[in-house]
User: Fold this.
Amino acid sequence: MDAHSSLISVDSDAAVQQIARDSLGSDALLEIVTAHGLEFLRLQPPASFDLAKPGGFYVIDDLLPQPNWTEGHAAKVPVLMEQLAARPDFGFLPVVWASGVVVAVRLS
Assistant:
């Protein structure tokens, strides 16, 4: 990241976010938010993230079954994966690693 970039980490697990704060909290380019991802995104102004611009990244984790998933979450994962994979304006790379990760890059 260059000096004009920023990174927002959004996770609903306060303990995980505290580890990030302890390790990276002094980095002025990083904002750590404890919230559910969808709730966070709904509160943001339209097109306020680079994922809306060519070259913007969208990284999602916890896509493989987790013991802490809320009821109904498991049914949402395949829907999200299908929707992202179907978008011609994104390059889409699912990775079966750790908790399951998707990296999507805006192409156009």
The mean pLDDT is 89. The longest strand covers residues 90-95. DSSP finds three helices and five strands in the chain.
